[in-house]
Write a structure and sequence with these properties.
alpha/beta; Rossmann fold; 2 domains; 8-stranded mixed β-sheet; two-stranded antiparallel sheet; 7 helices; 10 strands; elongated
């Protein structure tokens, strides 16, 4: 049965009648096929809520403006664990504690780490794809590649690249295929880091492998060895359970499945 017919059947069971227009509004709910049965099961609740709201308001909401949210009432408030949650806070706190007022980031999550740092410092954000940040005075977007950063040698005092380098060379984001892409990206970050500067890197660590074309997983020692010109100031990690482990042993995470290594390098 198609999603639209599933939606219509659920609404008819609830007594709404002709659900053609609302069925169109609900079509997006079926993008995750695993939720099709839950979608059909939740529709009667949605219709009862619609009718109760209409009775309270004295008029019915417009069908064409409907935006059904069927699962939020059963979801948790959010997740305070996992790679991005811990990584972005770890790195943003590092930048803050260092007293940085001008920071360069390469490709990290804009609505996470970059937003955190932009609350107290100016951020130059470099990515292959253009970023639209109209009217935000703290973020300056610049198109560029982590394989050829638009900066002179040893010129950047505060630099980050979080959950990015593992994708380089796999073609996922339109970049050229290159089996050495991740190691070349690390070398380029090393090239532009200034004397006395700080570099923060986040990358999946554990059993070393290529998960084509999503990402690579590196042994922590591979990252450290590649950055031979720099000094490792801290290694922390988000483990396979999603918990932050501060001041971890790189060797301990060599056998992880899909952890996140958090590296603080200085020159």
């Amino acid at each position: 049965m198609s999603l639209r017919n599933t939606v219509k059947a659920g609404l008819r069971a609830a007594g709404l009648g002709d659900a053609a227009r609302l069925g169109v509004q609900l079509a997006g709910l079926g993008l995750d096929l695993r939720r099709l049965p839950a979608t059909a099961a939740a529709l009667p609740w949605f219709v009862r809520s619609w009718r109760a709201y209409a009775a309270l308001a004295g008029e019915s909401p417009r069908v064409v403006e409907a935006y059904p949210c069927l699962f939020d009432r059963g979801d948790s408030a959010g997740s305070a664990s996992g790679h991005y949650f811990h990584q972005d806070l770890w790195a943003a706190r590092k930048v803050f504690d260092l007293g940085v007022r001008a920071h360069v980031d390469v490709g990290s999550r804009v609505d996470g780490f970059v937003a955190h740092v932009a609350s107290f410092a100016e951020v130059t954000y470099v990515d292959l794809r253009p970023l639209e940040a109209p009217g935000h005075p703290q973020i300056r977007a610049q198109v560029g590649s982590v394989l050829e950063l638009p900066f002179a040698d040893r010129s950047q005092r505060s630099l980050s690249c979080l959950h990015v380098i593992e994708h380089v060379g796999l073609g996922r984001y339109g970049d050229p295929l290159d089996p050495q892409g991740t190691l070349k990206a690390l070398a380029e970050l090393q090239r532009v880091l200034a004397p006395g500067g700080d570099l923060l890197v986040g990358v999946p660590v554990g059993r070393e492998r290529v998960c084509f074309n999503a990402h690579r997983v590196l042994a922590p020692t591979t990252v450290i060895a590649t950055m031979s010109e720099l000094t490792l100031r801290e290694f922390s990690a988000v483990d396979d359970r999603g918990a932050l482990v501060r001041d971890a042993s790189p060797e301990h995470f060599a056998g992880a499945d899909y952890a996140c290594g958090l590296f603080h390098f200085t020159r």
